[in-house]
Write a structure and sequence with these properties.
The protein is of the alpha/beta class. It has a domain of 200 residues: Vaccinia Virus protein VP39 (Rossmann fold), CATH 3.40.50.150. The chain is 35% helix and 27% strand. Strand 4, helix 6 and strand 5 form a beta-alpha-beta unit. 39% of the residues are buried. Bound molecules: S-adenosylmethionine (SAM).
Length: 294
Amino acid sequence: MNQPRLYASSNELQRRDAAAVLREYSPRLRWGGGEGGGRAGEDDDEGDAVLDVGCGTGEVTASLLLPALPARVRRVVGADLSPAMVRYAGAQHRDPRLLFVEADIAAPDLHRSPLAAQAGPRGFFKLFSFYCLHLVDQRMALRNMNVLLAPGGEALLAFLAKCPIFNVYESLAKYPQWRRYMTDVRKYVSPYQNCKDPVREFSTLLDEEGFIILDCCCKELNFEYLSLECLRDAVTSVNPFIERIPEGERAQFVVDIMKEIITQKLVTFVEDDMQKKITFTYSLLVAFIEKSRN
Ligand SMILES: C[S@@+](CC[C@H](N)C(=O)[O-])C[C@H]1O[C@@H](n2cnc3c(N)ncnc32)[C@H](O)[C@@H]1O
């Protein structure tokens, strides 16, 4: 996932969903300093620091998250595994309150990283993550989030529970031509893709990692692409295998992805106002959680 330009121009689905999740949950976030019914006696003179895990190109961080936060937030840190994403985000979004850093949220030594140093003496007051956690070892990521958050700090997480593109990855991993580039395909398929009850499974994990669950739900969603080209760009921009494929073969890889999408009937075509729309169905897991104060 190192294609910031392509991702920035084809991430309408991710932006739409992050905006909806923020709209729904922002009123429930608690802040100190008297805003939003905060916790008396927990004021921090320097203001609050907030973390966005898997910030990618930073559009969601800068254009959706930052404006949704109260003025007392002095710093929003966007963290991402991809150096290309972090570089792009830093160059595109220049606000003194924003900082983009490289970090692996599932790294065993994250507590010693430059990201941890940004948390302030008590930790991040809020943590957000949109469209990232289906890509990581969730137990390790939650453990690290627990370390990074201040006691009583809240986290709002949204990630893919199920998505047809994961079936495409599994099919392509069986093609003789692509097999060798996709031996670790399971790593890039959501852990809940074949799960009967993603909410229950994720809630169990949250509970085991010591979080208080304020809400956890799965949203069944649709997204309409205006053309197959738009869908192609969107799926290419988040494809984790493409960089491993020799440049001369990448176009064929993308053709095969699109063929699988069509033959597996993973999208439906709708004629509407003389326009052909392509509908894509998936489910998003949303969790609103709190770190215990003890
Ligand atoms: C689909 S993008 C989402 C970007 C942004 N949050 C948004 O909603 O537009 C997923 C991002 O997660 C990042 N990512 C994947 N694994 C990660 C990890 N272990 N730690 C931090 N970021 C990670 C990827 O590099 C990628 O930029």
